[in-house]
TrEMBL record:
GO CC annotations on file: peroxisomal membrane
InterPro entries: Pmp4
One protein family per Pfam: Tim17
Annotated protein name in UniProt: Tim17/Tim22/Tim23/Pmp24 family-domain-containing protein
Length: 207
């Protein structure tokens, strides 16, 4: 038994298997991370805002958690596998490989995978980080002059202001274009807070 474990240990630590094992571990980490993130989010949003029986809510939570975990795991598998193929083909890793692998994984998993609420939330989350990253990049690359070394402190106030200004304007003029879960949350915060007919509906419950 010890010899078998020693052999497995040697394979695990052998550099020539590193990329392949990295794909396997990426698949595992994607599934676990997706489960953790989506489960907590789904529990809160389902029990706060969704109607139905307890069993129905549990089914919704399990379905969303499974989809998020599966999609992240699949994306990691496609992404890292593509990197491996490109590295093997070209003889070395190149920066452009990450973009190509990301395009392929994004298209297969989140593009062709369907416009589900889970996929939309993941892609929009990534999009918001990309936009903020691009804003910081303009300062880092000196497209926009920075007055100090802290890129984030220059970009963040403008980014936050523009985001909130635009979303509140769209919520007022064309709320149907917003993501359903966000619109539901905003309805609760901004519209339901304008309606009450007693102390009970003012303080404890919506009208």
């Amino acid at each position: 038994m010890d010899s078998i474990m020693d052999s497995i240990h040697q394979v695990i630590l052998d550099p020539k298997y590193h990329d392949i094992l990295g794909i396997v571990k990426g698949l595992r980490n994607g599934a676990i991370y997706g489960s953790k993130v989506r489960f907590a989010h789904a529990v809160v949003m389902t029990f706060l805002f969704r109607n139905g029986s307890f069993a129905d809510k549990v089914r919704v939570i399990i379905k969303a958690t499974r989809e998020h975990a599966r999609n992240l795991a699949t994306f990691v598998f496609i992404y890292k596998s593509t990197l491996y193929v490109l590295k093997t083909t070209n003889g070395k890793a190149q920066n452009i490989d990450t973009f190509i692998a990301g395009l392929l994984g994004g298209y297969v998993v989140f593009g062709r995978g369907g416009k589900s609420s889970v996929n939309q939330q993941i892609v929009l989350y990534v999009f918001s980080r990309v936009v903020l990253g691009l804003a910081k990049l303009t300062v880092k690359k000196k497209v926009i002059p920075s007055l100090n070394d802290d890129v984030g402190s220059k970009v963040w106030p403008v980014f936050a202001a523009v985001c909130w200004g635009l979303v509140m304007y769209m919520f007022r003029t064309d709320p149907d274009v917003l993501q359903p879960s966000m619109k539901t949350s905003m309805d609760y915060i901004y519209l339901d807070s304008n309606r009450w007919d007693s102390l009970r509906t003012l303080v404890w419950h919506n009208e």
